[in-house]
Design brief:
Layout: H1 2-23, E1 25-26, H2 28-32, H3 35-45, E2 60-63, H4 69-79, H5 118-132, E3 139-144, H6 151-162, E4 168-174, E5 177-178, E6 181-182, H7 183-186, H8 192-198, E7 202-207, H9 211-223, E8 228-233, H10 241-244, E9 252-253, H11 256-274
Helix pairs in contact: 1-3, 1-4, 1-11, 3-4, 3-9, 5-6
Length: 275
Amino acid sequence: MYNRMKTAAAEIRKLAIQAMAAAGYGHIGGSMSICDVLAVLYEKILNIEPKNPQKKDRDWVVLSKGHSGPALYAALAYKGYFDKKELLSLNKNGTNLPSHCDRLKTRGIDLSTGSLGQGISLGMGAAYGNKIQGIDSYVYIILGDGELQEGQVWEAVQFGAHHNIDNAILIVDNNKRQLDGYVEEVCRQYNLRDKFLSFGYQVFEADGHDTKDIYEKLLKAKATKKPSAVILDTQKGYGCCFAEIEGFNHYMVITEEMAQKAISEIDKRLKRQLC
């Protein structure tokens, strides 16, 4: 099971890199840091049917850090929501895969996101609506640590606590960096665990690049029957050799040569992990 998730993470990384290379650029850093959690969600956690993406009791994924769309598109293509070849149209005229996620364009996208801070509000509202209707499903909301500087995030967190929205699970991609530099230098976030605890959330922490750890913490979050947050300790650009060593990897120009080198390295790393 765990090898399957590791393989999925590698494939999602490769597909996302190929998509951005075809465009010539992309939000590489934050896309790479969430590939492992996407692999866990789409391989083992989510109640979904790619051939019936609007089924009423499906689990939802809301990418509040919407600029990491290439990773989510890659996960959707990997699971069969649409042909992998469509990834090569990323950000191009007439594409169904715009820079930020659009539910009206992309099969498998549950909510449109992009403007930071708004995705969690939409996701929390969706979870609350499903709960009121008695729909047995979960909404997984992926946030960036830099995004947590938005005040709207904490309004949504408070709303979730007040209404005991236990079918919404917050996932924080704590990669320590944002567009303008390190989060601690731009606007210190202090102790994330304590902040969520102060709102009455159950908080779990995991190595964001260890699929087994992520899987186990997500299961615990589901079992709490209380609003919960899973904080992932991640590295921006993780798994992509040229992005890992780049100081400013939020958004990069990406050539086919860079992509092929990165994909080759991903295959080598996966082989070592599966031994």
